[in-house]
Design goal:
There is one protein chain. By secondary structure, this protein is of the alpha/beta class. The chain is built from 13 helices and twelve strands. It starts with 6 loop residues before the first helix and ends with a helix. The protein binds pyridoxal-5'-phosphate. The site of pyridoxal-5'-phosphate has 14 residues, from helix 3 and helix 4.
Amino acid sequence: MTGRCKIDTLLVQMGNRRDEHYRAVSTPIYFSTAYRHEELGLQDGYDYIRTGNPTRDVLEEAVAELEEGLRAFATSSGMAAVQLVFSLFEKSSHFISTRDIYGGNYRLFEIYREKYGFEFTYWHGDDEAEIAELIQPNTKAIFVESPTNPMMKTFDLKKISQITKEHDILHIVDNTLYTPYIQKPLVLGADIVIHSATKYLAGHNDVLAGLVITNDEPIAEELAFLHNSAGAVLAPYDSWSLIRGMKTLALRMERHEENAKRVKSYLKTHPLVTDVYYPGRGGMLSFEVQKKELVEPFLQALKIFTFAESLGGVESFLTYPITQTHMDIPEEVRLSYGLSDRLLRASVGVEHADDLIYDLDQAFAVASKSEVK
Ligand code: PLP
């Protein structure tokens, strides 16, 4: 595609004009695991699916362009993407990460700490300048989610990149919640971007996928080697599903954001809500209700929002992080950054905002009545 196109156009055109053979508009799905060799010693294309697949290549090339990186790698889940990136580092490496992160990332870091001697310093995320003081001689990278899951904190990625460059360490950003439609961390100076593509990129709660993107040639080469060696690559059908989902990302993100802003305004005035955390863009927000006892009846009463543990799909979801996405984070750790038993996380979908607000309103009414009993 031409680099002059806006991201909306790049998204819609993913895969188009790639099929030279029949000029199919929708990218063909190549299921074949193996490719015939014309002669001994001649390897001029694909040979084995783990190493390369035409459908996955279309996805990876398009994603690299969307994030303005050099190369992208599609993995079998978001966690496989995190794992691929951390397999770049040697044992006993030290990392800095925010405390407020997706529970699965925290759990994986704990496994790395116990099994491979990786060290993690958890930064509170208040002032980017503090990061420099946390850097040690064996520090290899800083990992941040921006916005964070679930407290929706955002960081000055440019400032963090300046610090990482000064100290010759890597800046890794999990861009799952904002997507390249809102934020391009590589352009702001990051070295590696990670996605749980299961979320907004796929967008329909029906694909498990991850992505890693970099703009650094040596890192890309190492990632390609590790991607093929460990093998958690994305399957052809899932690669195609992700391409199809991403075509509407721009439209969906606009509507997610419009709806989230309406829901945020509604929640801010509700007497049973004490705090609302909205990062300013996108479709995610978290909020705290007055009492923990309201949580269960409120979730039970919802008719449109689904009580489920994912995010970024067209359907609106509500998640209770402390028993779902963040259950592996010890209580004292989660409380230290404000993840309380009164916090609910909303992934605001693309339904009509009036209906979403009506649903929340009726669920609050039911919850407050059941509390009185
Ligand atoms: N990163 C973030 C911010 C997430 O929210 C998630 C999943 O919820 C992941 C990574 C892991 O992705 P997956 O569930 O696709 O493995």
